[in-house]
Amino acid sequence: MVVATTMFCLGGILVGGAGIFALLALGDLRALWTLRRIPVTPVTVRGRVAVEGVTEYGTAGPQLAPVTGEDCAWYRVTLLREPSRDSTTGDYGPDHDVLLEITSPSWAALGDASGRVPIDPRLLDHPRALRDPTPGEPLVSITTEIEHRGSQPARLPRIVPPDVVRDLRRSERLRLTEVRVPRGVKVFALGRVTATGLLPSRAGLTLLTPRSRAEVITSRRDAIGMGGRLAVWFGLIGLVLAAGSAVWLRTMG
To answer: What's the pTM value of the predicted model, to 2 decimals?
Structure first.
């Protein structure tokens, strides 16, 4: 009885997993359809576009990343203290305090032979994106993190105020994060170009990746094939287990 019940439950789990893989494959299929439907255009074309170009300096010119000292086209630096000292936020509030947040004075740009357009930072700093770009896509940005504790001190750059370090309690830590975008990175982007610049799409797929359009299409096609095969195998095995155990349970009853 116990073995049959376990097999029935396992079969149900596998069938459910097959449904999840099928949904993921459908999402990739819709993204592939979008990628093939929108042709690559110059970056200066307005509207929903697919563009290929390179990252360039913005209107403020070359930038120096405050944490690493690297030359870049754009940066964002955030200093967090964990856990939060604000007891009024409750269980659903943030588990940290934001002590410092600075960004470069201008957006990075995307350029090709036709010109340049500014890139909305939401496409560069993925956790802040309206729709997080595909998790499987590599990032255009480079992230550097430094963690500092009283018991495990780290070498902190001058951008960190000394009084913040001195005020740190034994149970707390500082997390310094720098996200920067180098100049000259070849990228493929799918989004919306307006007078403001390259923005996330209002609906559907948004991308900014160092892969080429052909590489992105190949990756999506491979993901669809893998997801479809997993959905079929999980579904078949799950149905066999569930049906067999159901018959077994009926004969035992």
So the answer is: 0.77
